[in-house]
């Protein structure tokens, strides 16, 4: 416990004075997003992914029922349903201007959608040579003006797709993983991926270099901190780890939740103050990023099955959780 405490204190210095000021305001329970909303229900079956848009007003969900659904979670409103995939939808990502979103599925296809019309404007992938030869698990916009998409697959590769091109083929493929890619994230010129081989990989597409941090247990999710100084990684040993981005040193461990079978997601709140992760018993765990004990400070249930996906609000102490039970829940501080 002492070692974790000292490393956690070092994490505070990485986040700087902005974090310290905000942490003082979070000391009371009212600052923690522990109040669940009434569940949003429309999907039939598992919700594989939930994603806020850049303003935090809307969110998109990807379902095993082959649909993507657009919501206003603050008003408990289903806005629109999008259909086109032939198999379950694994992930969804929303463009910065909110005009488009992209989805990937177990059908090995990527669809680029127009939000307003609900039409598919571009299709990528398929069975031709050069495309993924296994199901896709994750997707993210990247590049200048969201001109590219990056996908991660069961085939162990990352592939980049030019949304402005007429070609169905990827423009670049990144290799190195020894097992399925479970998550992907982008920050400027850095592409972060998690793999079931137990490694978090940071590809610098500007220099062509790669940094590998091995966790020793299959990784199911990895995220950048908001300031880019740290990585947060969830693995199938019931553990979330906070790592120093520069050195790969483990700064803190977060445990007490259940994650040994399924791909669950973790995240830091927008100000890097609180760690959030789903649990296989339907609960959501919250940890203070610098707490000395590994058990969650808040561990509340709002779902009946494993919590598959987490999306944090871009500017507020709020987050969304989604579950295998088909529900989506918005979490806020009790006083809001």
Mind explaining what this structure looks like?
There is one protein chain. With 336 residues, this protein is mainly β. The chain has one helix at 2-25; strands at residues 35-36, 40-41, 47-52, 59-63, 67-72, 77-83, 89-94, 100-105, 109-114, 120-125, 136-142, 148-153, 158-162, 172-174, 181-187, 190-195, 199-204, 209-214, 219-224, 230-235, 239-244, 250-254, 266-268, 274-278, 283-288, 298-301, 307-312, 319-323, 327-332. The strands form seven sheets. Strands 1, 2, 27, 28 and 29 form a five-stranded antiparallel beta sheet that branches. A hairpin with a 5-residue loop joins strand 21 (239-244) and strand 22 (250-254). It is globular. 49% of the residues are buried. Residues 1-7 have low confidence and may be disordered.
In short:
The chain has 336 residues and is mainly beta.
